[in-house]
Each structure stands twice: as C-alpha cells, then as structure tokens.
Design a protein that fits this description.
It is a single chain. The chain is mainly beta and 171 residues long. It has two domains: 81 residues, RimM (Elongation Factor Tu (Ef-tu), domain 3, Beta Barrel); 63 residues, SH3 type barrels. The chain has two helices and twelve strands. A six-stranded antiparallel sheet has the order 3-4-5-2-1-6. Strand 7 and strand 8 form a beta hairpin.
C-alpha cells in the first residue's frame, strides 16, 4: 500500500465482548447472519492483526472463540471491545430488499408525500424490534423506523431511500 492510500474497506462481523477463563477465549457478539463466519480455521481481523479461529462454540446468544496464538487471559483482554472484520469484498449477497447497514449510511432520505429530501442516513441504530435510521439534515435529526410500512424504496445505485412517515402529531 502506497503512502496516503486508504485501507481496504472491511465489514464488521462480530465484536469481542470480554475475556472468558484463562486460556485466551473471548465472548463474541455475532454481527453476521452467517454462522459459518466463525468456524474453526477462518481468518478474521482486529485492526491490523489477522487472527485465525482455533475453536468456537455457542453459549446462549454469544459465541465463545479461541484464536490461534492467544493463549492467556491478558492476551484475550487486549481484544475486548474490538470489532472482528473481513474484507468488504467477502460480504455475502443478501436476499432482495435486504441491505447491510453500510449500504444505507449516506443515502439521501426522500419524503414520499412531498418528494423533498428529509436528510441523509447518518447511522443505523440496532433495536430489538426493528433497526432505526438516524437521519440528519444540519442540526435537525429524525429517527426513522426501518420497517416496510415506512421505508417504501431503497435505491443504493441512486443513493436514495423513499420513506412514508406518519404525519407529525400537533400538540
């Protein structure tokens, strides 16, 4: 990579929550819909460090993973809070009308009723019921539920999303 070159984009597939035990194992929150992302022998990256999954098991909603070369608790603790990533070109195809969060961030959100831009998707906030889009337009922020009843069209090629928001309550 030459001087000033941007690092290749990466997809977050998991987040290390905390060290577990004394053997270097860590608890991981999966951010992937594809469980085989974490099978034994798979290579994942944390920052600039390439790690190979040595062992994995499910424990409730989380995974317990041991990486090759991380053999003690202090080594595992250094991974806490870090994201596990793969190259963006390894992103798996999703079903029609499903999108990765990174594909939604930056889209211009258009009001279906007026045709006017509401703002730009700044972030996708995970929520147990449904994800929420944080749409910003200068100092104005609008939270938009990511549900079919509201989001009418997503056009990544055109960098737009059309939404039909319920009218604001007058109070």
């Amino acid at each position: 990579m030459g001087r000033g070159a941007e690092p290749a984009p990466r997809l977050r597939v998991g987040r290390v929550l905390r060290a577990l035990g004394l053997d270097g194992s860590v608890r991981v929150e999966s951010l992937s819909d594809f469980p085989d992302r974490f099978r034994s022998g798979v290579s994942l990256r944390i920052g600039d460090r390439e790690l190979t999954v040595e062992a994995v098991r499910r424990q409730g909603e989380e995974l317990v993973i041991r990486f090759a070369g991380i053999t003690d608790r202090p080594g595992a603790e250094r991974l806490e809070g870090e994201y596990l990533t793969v190259p963006l070109n390894e992103a798996r195809a999703l079903p029609a009308d499903h999108f990765y969060h990174f594909q939604l961030v930056g889209l211009t959100v258009i009001d279906a009723r007026t045709g006017q831009a509401i703002g730009v998707v700044a972030e996708v906030l995970p929520n147990p019921a449904n994800d929420i889009l944080r749409v910003v337009n200068g100092a104005v922020e609008v939270l938009v539920p990511l549900v079919r009843a509201v989001v009418k069209a997503v056009n990544p090629g055109e960098r737009t999303m059309v939404v039909d928001l319920p009218p604001a309550e007058e109070g």
